[in-house]
Design brief:
The chain is built from eight helices and seven strands, in the order H-H-E-H-E-H-H-E-E-H-E-H-H-E-E. The chain is α/β, with parallel strands linked by helices and 251 residues long. The longest helix is centred in the first third of the chain and has 25 residues. The mean pLDDT is 88.
Length: 251
């Protein structure tokens, strides 16, 4: 590896619960010193237990700043082809595909607009951050970066063998989601594959993060219905930590 990967998600998604833990412990010690009644001490203790458990989930299960694993071996099983990453962000999903499918090339697409800075903070431009991670992984020669809106892709029809979108389309409103899925269908070759990954609705995700990772909050039936409306056939769906994934193909 030529450098250090840095996906740029805010610190509070990984370590924010520790701030609550520290504050709760301070309150507990204060309450013990001043001999508070049992009720507030129980509440403080429960808050402490929750914050520690939520930190363990955030850091070691979700791990938004860690490498992302391909959720299904069926996606592009041939191992070769030209792929599009819709909403590549800082490159987490792009690296996922390039590392799991070493004979592929990827066009990493993102709007790199204000919403990008909102998620990943100020500093380098979006393209620079993405390129930095590609270089750190030694994969820059197999990827190109494209600034564009996933709702209006700047590619001709039937351009790509496969498409991946991870935790990006579900940021859009309903109309934006539908537009993006139709665009994905348009630029995908016949018999091409589309891997869609969105934030899951598991109870433990809500336990740890509440609304912070909710995104759209839509379930598998809704997503599979929108994929079919866009011309896809859903061939597999499942869950991974904090993730609902659907693998679809274009007839």
């Amino acid at each position: 590896m030529a450098g250090q990967l840095h996906f740029g998600y805010p610190w509070y998604l990984t370590y924010g619960h520790l701030v609550i833990t520290a504050a709760a412990l301070a309150l507990w010690l204060l309450g013990r010193a001043r001999k508070w009644s049992k009720a507030p001490m129980v509440l403080i203790g429960a808050l402490t237990v929750w914050s520690v458990a939520a930190f363990l989930v955030a850091r070691f299960v979700v791990n938004v700043n860690g490498r992302l694993a391909l959720p299904t071996d069926k996606f592009l099983a041939s191992g070769a082809g030209r792929l599009l990453d819709m909403g590549a962000g800082t490159g987490r999903s792009t690296l996922m595909v390039l590392e799991a499918r070493p004979q592929t090339t990827v066009v990493a697409l993102d709007l790199f607009a204000e919403s990008y800075e909102h998620h990943f903070g100020p500093g380098q431009s979006g393209q620079e951050r993405l390129l930095s991670n590609l270089r750190a992984a030694g994969l820059e020669s197999r990827a190109t970066i494209q600034a564009a809106d996933m709702r209006k892709l700047p590619f001709e029809a039937a351009t790509f063998d496969g498409i991946v979108s991870a935790y990006a389309i579900d940021h859009l409103n309903r109309d934006g989601i539908i537009e993006s899925l139709h665009e994905a269908s348009r630029v995908l070759k016949p018999r091409g594959e589309f891997l869609l990954m969105v934030i899951g609705k598991e109870p433990w995700v809500n336990f740890a993060f509440g609304p912070l990772l909710l995104h759209s909050g839509r379930g598998p039936e809704w997503w599979s219905g929108r994929l079919r409306e866009a011309g896809f056939q859903v061939v597999e769906q499942g869950t991974r930590p904090a993730t609902l994934y659907l693998l679809a193909s274009k007839p």
